[in-house]
Design brief:
With 104 residues, this protein is α/β, with parallel strands linked by helices. It has one domain (4-103). 16% of the residues lie in helices and 44% in strands. It has helices spanning 4-13, 84-90, and strands spanning 18-23, 26-29, 35-36, 41-49, 59-66, 71-77, 94-103. Strands 3-2-1-6-5-4-7 form a seven-stranded mixed beta sheet. A hairpin with a 4-residue loop joins strand 5 (59-66) and strand 6 (71-77). It is globular and about 35 Å long. The chain starts with a helix and ends with a strand.
């Protein structure tokens, strides 16, 4: 079974080296300060973790590429504990047709 840390390390090795946050309906790259609207982004991979014994363990990682070429990650809780601001933003981001989606 893959842990969140293992998946993050694998994605970092695939050049998803930045961390993104959502503020004021924009995705912000913490490292570069760039900001993006949903139409400037593509979700390349989604990794969802389901806690077998504890619902607090449910989380989701989005590997995202911006129009500028900046690549990074958005991490959120999954389900009841998800951040509504992140969920609302992400639902407006295109998912690459062949995107990898894994439930772990």
């Amino acid at each position: 079974m893959n842990t969140i840390t293992e998946i993050i390390n694998k994605l970092r090795a695939k050049n998803y080296t930045n961390d993104f946050i959502i503020e004021n309906d924009m995705l912000i790259c913490k490292e570069t300060g760039e900001s993006f609207t949903p139409d400037e982004l593509v979700i390349e991979e989604i990794h969802r973790f389901e806690g077998d014994s504890n619902p607090d363990d449910m989380s989701i990682i989005y590997a995202i590429t911006a129009i500028s070429g900046t690549r990074g990650l958005v991490i959120d809780a999954y389900g009841t504990y998800s951040n509504p601001q992140i969920s609302s933003f992400i639902k407006n981001v295109s998912v690459r047709e062949e995107a990898d989606f894994k439930v772990l």
